[in-house]
Design brief:
Chain lengths: 388, 388
Amino acid sequence: MLFSKEEYKERLKKVQKSMQEKGIELLISSDTANMNYLTGYDAWSFYYAQCVIVHVNSDEPLCFVRAQDAGGAYITTYLKKENVIVYHEKYIHTWPLHPYDYLVEIIKERKWDKLNVGLEMDSHYFTAYCYEKIKQGLPNAKLKDSERLVNWTRVVKSGTEIKLMKCAASISEKGMKTAMNAINPGVRQCDAVAEIQKTLFMGTPEFGGEYSSIATLLPTGKGTSASHLTASQEKFVTGEATIIEISGVYKRYHVPMARTVLLGKPEQKKIDAMKATNEALDAGIEATKPGNTTNDVAQKFWAVLDKHNIKKESRTGYSIGIGYPPDWGEHTLNISKGDETILQPNVCFHMIAVMQFGDWGVEASESVRVTKNGSELFCNYSRDLHIK
Amino acid sequence: MLFSKEEYKERLKKVQKSMQEKGIELLISSDTANMNYLTGYDAWSFYYAQCVIVHVNSDEPLCFVRAQDAGGAYITTYLKKENVIVYHEKYIHTWPLHPYDYLVEIIKERKWDKLNVGLEMDSHYFTAYCYEKIKQGLPNAKLKDSERLVNWTRVVKSGTEIKLMKCAASISEKGMKTAMNAINPGVRQCDAVAEIQKTLFMGTPEFGGEYSSIATLLPTGKGTSASHLTASQEKFVTGEATIIEISGVYKRYHVPMARTVLLGKPEQKKIDAMKATNEALDAGIEATKPGNTTNDVAQKFWAVLDKHNIKKESRTGYSIGIGYPPDWGEHTLNISKGDETILQPNVCFHMIAVMQFGDWGVEASESVRVTKNGSELFCNYSRDLHIK
């Protein structure tokens, strides 16, 4: 078991406390990262409906998975076998049959069908279809959005979680070093990713890497104006910039990192944009300490951009920890003006400056941990525009 | 452009025909693979709400993406710039604000708010929240499930699509060869995946690989009873079996392959199970031809299992083509008893036999293309239990 049973129990208690505060008696948690957080469940089975069910008074959550994945649940969760609820294979992609038909049955059997039920309304895999099954199947339940209460519980990390994130950070550093070496004029983008992926999976001798919840992002040339482009088989071109965004992953914990490399002749506007970006990141990180808010961090960041007359409308960071595709963000705090989340020790966020200027862009980031008195960076890797 | 404009137009026409048949005047397509199919859009941006909007009489679809991804849409889609609809960054993870607030505005502006609107109700990223925004924002629209009509349009591949899949197949073969070489007693699972990933991304000199929509699945030992477990940093152990499930990917087209390797002493029950599985796969493939149904294929498959007294409750295949995380299946036909989809030339499916026997299992698969008179396999790779 990755975490002690006590740590899992503590997580459950925190979630149940939050449920009480929100008037939720039964929580259906479909977010893959939340499922992992609450039970340890870890498998690539999230392309079918699955969830964790938390009753406000229960000693353990229930893990609701497909029959084919029952073995995975027995292996990866801390739960008693009876708390792994297995649905039949007949529900797999045979609409209008649906796994949540069985979920509704289970809830009725346990006489939970008149409770206040919390749903993760905008969780990636909680589809409209799942929702309709619950609405129609549990007409007496009072449904409400749980407003990411499990995600919010995840925001402050335990000591063990921080240790795992530090392992992930050391993998990120190695991955970025490989990327910087592999990206050269005439090299196919896919061949650079091949080397990056190899490094990220090998990790370190002590800490093996895992699949990341976002693919290696590698926009290049004009593509640097679009931060979420992935690699193609086209070759890198002299004179063009490439943005690299990766994450080392250890036991599903992510510590992402973004950097920009410029091949060939230095271009002053890109050098200047990168410098201003880094100055802004530094200003934000400087303001990161317990008691300050994410808005305080954002204000300092944007003050530097304003000084340099740079416009940026997108948020410049988000909370990180456990991740599953399609996202490594926790869907809680944002580093943006007006987000008034109060920082606490062991809140961790990816402060990422995606800077777009028409048909080009630069990017850099730091994964930051709030400490007792300030903050520390997970990774140690220059953010300068890497010119080669 | 990957496909000719004519091919995109033809896809659109087929989808519009299907919309007419179902009485849908406006389709909101949130499935990432459908978005790619209809417009060419390709970026790892599906962790935010996005969609393609198809009016039944329009010349082009609309592609609805986040501002930060506008550049990616201009680069990767065939659409006129005016048909890329960009929503503001203020909607990113700032609930109760939501991108679909703006989607509703767009639909109202165009006076489409009283139409019969088709929704992909169980598409992975069409969340309950998106659905509520549409329901509340378009009270006069008649909402209905599109029942995967775009997915069904994708089932029969064009000549160009088949060519891309053959490229993906050659990458799958290379990946599996690497896996079989890399998996040895004492090797960390993550190190084997590092080699596999490197191979899959490098692809061939002509065809570079891409990220797969499912991570390398590598259940080993007791884990072979659970088909969706991914690699850890534990080492492979003499005497244990490992299932390898991978896919080569080319231009987002997937051709998956599963095999099983046994390290050390041959174990008769696993050899026998593998033989029976392969006999069943062969029987199913033998029955694959235009005019036959998926049920016909399934009946032949299960007849062999029955003969060997092997019970298997899960479906044994599904349609394949374009894929994005979390799935490479098309969510249309299943190879299972009772699925009466009639096979046509250029229908492609992954016929995969996940065989679980308590605390162990074996697995093998073929990606199959229906031809004019029968079928052909995309890959050429022995399905025998690989003993080393």
